[in-house]
Amino acid sequence: MSTTFQLDSATSRANPTPAPMRRLTVPAIRDRKQDGKTEEPVVMLTAYTARQAQLLDPHCDVLLVGDSLGQVIYGLPSTIPVTLEMMANHAAAVVRGSYHSVVVVDMPFGSYEQSPEQAFDSAARLLKESGAAAVKLEGGEAMAETVSFLVNRGIPVMGHVGLTPQAVNVLGGYRARGRSDAEAEKIVADAVALEQAGAFVVVVEGVVEPIAIEVTETVSCVVIGIGASAKCDGQVLVTDDMLGMFERVPRFVKRYADMAELVSDTAAKYAEEVRARTFPGPEQTYQPKR
Ligand SMILES: Nc1nc(=O)c2c([nH]1)NC[C@@H]1CN(c3ccc(C(=O)N[C@@H](CCC(=O)O)C(=O)O)cc3)CN21
Ligand SMILES: CC(C)C(=O)C(=O)O
């Protein structure tokens, strides 16, 4: 049997990928920043389902299976109740639906904070059950030891500082961060700690622009912004927010489409036709052979 094909773990060993291709890798993302500069910004979007992944994959470098799925898919009030099982299942769907982007999966609240060992167990389970290439976790200095523990044992880690939604109960809401000098210094120190611990990307969320720029210029690894600055090394948004699926979104979201209106208008047309008995029509109806 040829060993030149990349075998997809989700398919049979006798069924190699038809067109030999290679998914982007974590080192390829890391290498996008050279000597403190990123020529081509890193494009990241969230994905939670296989079909969503199929549609986004050709346009992205990284697909993030974010724990925002708690709010977006499950209607939960925050990301706090999200479980490892939910993350593993959605990440597996996203891996099945993509072949180009690096798939990164969020570690949910409570699955990694206790100890590096707990984090390794959780991260290993996520990668084993999904085929994703890396994990993301929230926190800076407090998580540095955990980040290096994971990286040294073969698990690439994306960090996340600034507005960290899993800390909503400590922060008291989802307000932008870095307005006071102390807060600003802490955000930079957190990003530096993650970089030194070996994180390949740091996500900076919901911070005043000068701090986002300072972080981007200070750390050598790729800095991906959300509610941060166009000067970051890359950007991420929650796909459903960008598509206009939600009526209330953070100020940092740009709605590139109005999918909510499209879905609602389409459901209205369907409902009208059902009530008028004009759907199904002849083309959607089976007739016996005669
Ligand atoms: N759909 C969605 N999009 C997100 O960006 C997102 C999630 N869900 N879930 C997890 C976290 C939570 N995030 C949020 C949620 C709300 C605001 C927000 O409404 N911010 C207000 C200010 C809030 C305040 O002043 O208290 C804003 O106007 O931007 C920001 C980030 C970001 N993440
Ligand atoms: C918004 C991004 C960065 C995220 O963490 C999520 O989707 O959960």
UniProtKB/TrEMBL annotation:
Residues 1-15 have a biased composition (Polar residues). 3-methyl-2-oxobutanoate binds at D67, S68, D106, K136. It is an enzyme of class 2 (transferase). Its cofactor is Mg(2+). It is found in: Cytoplasm. Binds 1 Mg(2+) ion per subunit. GO terms for cellular component: cytoplasm. Its main location: cytoplasm. Keywords: Cytoplasm, Magnesium, Metal-binding, Methyltransferase, Pantothenate biosynthesis, Transferase. Its EC number is 2.1.2.11. Belongs to the PanB family. This is 3-methyl-2-oxobutanoate hydroxymethyltransferase. It comes from Novosphingobium marinum.
